[in-house]
Amino acid sequence: EFGFGEIGLHCFTVSGHVDAAGELDWTARIKNIRSGEQHLGDLQLRMRGQLADHRLTARAVGGVAGLQLETHGSWDGERWQETIDSAVIDSGAMGAWTLSEAVSVEE
Question: How many Cα atoms occupy the beta-carbon half-sphere of 81 within 13 Å?
Fold first, then answer.
């Protein structure tokens, strides 16, 4: 059981590997995320590829809204660029929001 202020989670695991060519494949799972009494669900993140050319997926389930997110991007040691290729947030009774076109983010 972990917490920070009103935000808490039950379990956090990370697994993965990096091969000799720098290809990585890792997964992070966060279970039973909550804010106060509100259950926000479980989150899974997966990153594949090299830092210079990677893909990231995120899935959130079991809370007030579901999330599906797919991105691709790069990190060159100084500059980060990411493109959100698809995103769906489904709040159940209020319906789903879907990203209509890819969005680029960089730092």
Answer: 6
